[in-house]
Specification:
The protein is of the alpha/beta class. The protein has six helices and eight strands; from the N terminus they run E-E-H-E-H-E-H-E-H-E-E-H-E-H. The protein has helices at 30-41, 56-68, 89-93, 102-116, 142-156, 168-171; strands spanning 2-3, 14-20, 45-52, 74-78, 99-100, 126-130, 133-138, 164-165. The strands form two sheets. The protein has a six-stranded mixed β-sheet, with helices on both faces. It is globular and about 45 Å long. The chain starts with a strand and ends with a helix.
Length: 173
Amino acid sequence: MSKASADKPKAVLNCAVLTISDSRSAADDSSGDYLADRLQANGHRCAKRAICGGNLYQIRRTLSDWIADEQIQVIITNGGTGYTHRKSTAAAITPLLDSVISGFGELFRHLSYLEIGSSSLQSDAFAGSANDTLIFCVPGSTGACKTAWEGIIGQQLDSTHRPCNFASHYQNR
C-alpha cells in the first residue's frame, strides 16, 4: 500500500488488457475496448492488448510474457471468472501470483451485489501481483468491467487517490 503524495505528478502506468473468451474477436470485444479506453482516458498507456481463448496454458503464456516484461506495470483481464464449465482464469493465473489482494474480490462482489443482487456470487473476480506487476481479473461483461473500473481499479490506479492507492508504488521506484 502506497500513500498518495500531493507534491508528485500523477503516475502514468503501462498497462495490458487481456480478454479471455472463446467467442469474442477484436471486432466485438466491448469489454476490452471499455478497459483500454478507461486506461487511456485516465492518463495511462494501454501498451498491450490481446484476446485469448479459455485454454489455461495459452492464458498463462500470454500473462507470463507480460509479467516478465519490465515495461508492463498493470494487467487487467476480463472473462473466464464466472460459474461455468469453461471457467479457467483463476486456475490459469493464481499459480503465477506472488501475492493476492484478498479484498479485491470481496469488494467487487459487494459492489456487484448492489447492482445485480445474489447473481454476484457467481463471480470469482480476484487480484494480485507477480514480479511487481498488478493483475486484476474481472468478469467479461462490459457492465462488470464498468463496476470494477469505477468502483475499484480506476481509483487504485490514480496516484492522487487518498489515503492510499497502488499507483503511488510505481512513482517511488
